[in-house]
Amino acid sequence: MYKELRNHIIKLFGSDTRLDGRKFTDFRPIKLETGVASSAEGSARVNIGKTDVIVGIKTEVMEPFPDTPDEGGIMVGAELLPLSNPDFELGPPGIEAIEIARVVDRGIRESKAINFKKLCIKENEKVWMLVIDICTINDSGNLLDASALAAVAALKDMRFPKYENEKLDYKEKTDKKLDLKDLPITVTVIKIGDKLIVDPDLDEEKVIDARLTVASLSDGTLCALQKGGDYPLTAEDIDKMVHIALGKAKELRRLIR
Amino acid sequence: MAYKQRIDGRKFDETRKIEAKVGIIPRADGSAMFRTGNTVAYAAVYGPRNLHPRFLQDPSKGILRCNYNMMPFSSFGERVRPGGSRRSKEISLVTEKALLPVLDLNEYPNSVVDVFIEFPQTEAGSRCAGISAAAMALADAGLSMKDLVAAVSVGRVDDKLVVDLDYNEESYEDGPVADIPVAMMPNHDKITLLQMDGLISTDELKKVIEMAKKACKDIYKVQNKALKEKYKAEAE
Fold first, then answer.
1. ipTM attached to this prediction
2. Which domain covers residue B72, as residue numbers?
3. Which residues in chain A have their CB less than 8 angstroms from residue B67's CB?
């Protein structure tokens, strides 16, 4: 469908450049801001180039799930708002939104950065649930990495509200922060033709062959992976992609600290 | 007991701190932010564009479609469940009716102008902030308009008539409260949105609508300035 566009992008790759003049492993300029929604217990906004995503966290107190009576948890939702892209439509989350939410969820959950046992208020009865909602404001490509970065920054920004005598008072935030043992960072590496790039813009997203999303910890341990796109990858591709992602994750982690 | 002084110290006819910005969403055909106090509205306009499904099309003119939505974390209380509610559907409807009178959609048969209004945080007066943002976004999209629309909520707290009620005033418990969202075409002195919850006398209603007119004219100045600012910045 985008044959001409693809040919043009690949031709540019031949002279070591991209549509907007970036190098293969350059992100667009990233801006990260926290405390952007004072109604949320934690929030962050990430701009990558013109891409603009807000993540807000509301804390809830609920009964634990029966199989984990002494653990709280996280829930991640993504809304690809029709305000952010002319092709997004109203209605329940589509498959693209669900994938973003689930990959962001796994990056955080599997990193074990949050000790869910510490979110337990009273075993079998009351636990904290951190509901992380991703809302897109402007889609200019790479919503996934922007969402994941904003989600971790929002967790770091979070303050628990007051909970006393089995009553939750959202009006009063405490000083109590969430104990985050690590900062899991998610980076997606894209394959177009035989080149590997990061942070695709809208045009590059239209012509990707394959992508690999890699979530990793500060010591380089991997904590979540997701392969996407219609074409396969070789083991060699995967090795290269993981290395690119780990290198980029180091840069992104510095933005949160 | 009388309501002697506003809880946040404002004058009775004073709005909360207002900010406006145009062109905040590059992908949209028009966009704007409008903020009053802790209530922040983003509006994006897409269109005129093709309307699907086809049975919704009007061969004589374009239609306006508005959608009001609170982000899940936008409430200072409990999380708002995503997806529309009866409340958000009704507000979308009255928003549409508030904006329609300034637009001329006769040139766009079979088309739709979509207005999406989103709130990252809300603390009373969201529908009015949404309408004020949407009007700027429509102007930014380059649609022909005979006026802008400015909106504010006015009302009564106990024995006082007030402009731009905040949450504490909406939920005032020591006396009766009336909450009256009003939208105006500021250059035509016409009202395009009027709702009310609460109790008020006909005399007070008359007076408070005059207060709304004055406040809307002030809001219009802020909207106008924000629009000019964007195009000034582009010219430079």
1. 0.91
2. 18-235
3. 82, 90
